[in-house]
Each structure stands twice: as structure tokens, then as C-alpha cells.
Automatic annotation (TrEMBL):
Residues 15-41 are annotated as: Disordered. Gene3D superfamilies: Tetratricopeptide repeat domain. Residues 15-30 have a biased composition (Basic and acidic residues). This is Kinesin light chain. It comes from Oidiodendron maius (strain Zn). The lineage of its organism: Eukaryota, Fungi, Dikarya, Ascomycota, Pezizomycotina.
Length: 60
């Protein structure tokens, strides 16, 4: 969903959704589950698209 919102230029919503998805997957699946890592990637893409490079670098 965050990717769709990003393509629709709804970046604030995309950021919130990507954060929520990442938090949920970390809680339920943990790291380094592949689905959690996909959420990290998706969140990074959203942040980079917004120019939030430092925040994107700090994701782990």
C-alpha cells in the first residue's frame, strides 16, 4: 500500500503506512525474516523519495 501511495504522491501517508507495516512485521516475525526485510526496503524507498536520507540510513 505504501508503494501505491508513494506513486500517487501521497508521501506522508506512504511514510506512515510503511512505518506501521515495518513495526508490525518486526513484532510478529522479527529480524531477519524476509518479510520484515522487505518492509525495511519499502520504508527506505519511501524515505529516500522524500529526501530523508539520514533517516533512511539509520534503518536496521
Amino acid at each position: 500500500l505504501a508503494s501505491v501511495l508513494r506513486y500517487q504522491k501521497r508521501c506522508d501517508e506512504a511514510e506512515k503506512r510503511s512505518q506501521r507495516a515495518l513495526e508490525g512485521r518486526e513484532k510478529e516475525l522479527g529480524m531477519p525474516h524476509s518479510s520484515t526485510l522487505t518492509s525495511v526496503h519499502n520504508r527506505t524507498v519511501v524515505l529516500v523519495h522524500q529526501g530523508k536520507y539520514k533517516e533512511a540510513e539509520n534503518l536496521d
